[in-house]
Specification:
The protein is an alpha+beta fold and 159 residues long. It has one domain: Aspartate Aminotransferase, domain 1 (Alpha-Beta Complex), CATH 3.90.1150.10. The chain has helices spanning 5-27, 53-62, 89-104, 114-123, 129-142, and strands spanning 34-35, 43-47, 68-70, 75-79. It has a four-stranded antiparallel sheet, covered by helices on one side. Helix 2 (53-62) crosses helix 3 (89-104) and helix 2 packs antiparallel against helix 4. The chain starts with a helix and ends in a 17-residue tail after the last helix.
Amino acid sequence: MMLLGERWLCGCTRKILLPHGLLNQELKKIDHIFIFGKPEVSVLALGSDAFDIFRLGNMLTSKGWSLTMLQFPSSIHISLTLLHTKPGVAQQFVNDIQESVSEIMKDPKAKTTGVGAIYGMAQTIPDRSMITDISHVFLDALYNTEPLSADSTLVNGSH
């Protein structure tokens, strides 16, 4: 902000409002999904009462969209950036959602796979402290900084 200034930031925000308006309007027209709340600027969260919304998240991710999966309630959200202001990008997102929802509705009760299944499963664990413990173990393993021994064959994740 110090380098580019308030004027630049406000200009970016105004640009982001254009695809936000289009998405907010067009996504409301798609059956079987809904928008959470009344988003005002750069984040849109989607849910569904007809199918597992994480399936939609998986399908959109496979099409190249960067979404975040959320819990309580199950939802996916997209944070709009300047990339979404490029011509045709917002409409392509709408088209990809329409196509994906149509595909999902061929079998709305199908099981979720991939990352979506992990989010859904984690949401059902009654003792939430387990999630914290498992997350700590995972992050500890991921960011292990202990040096490998000279005779170790483990290099960049390969054996």
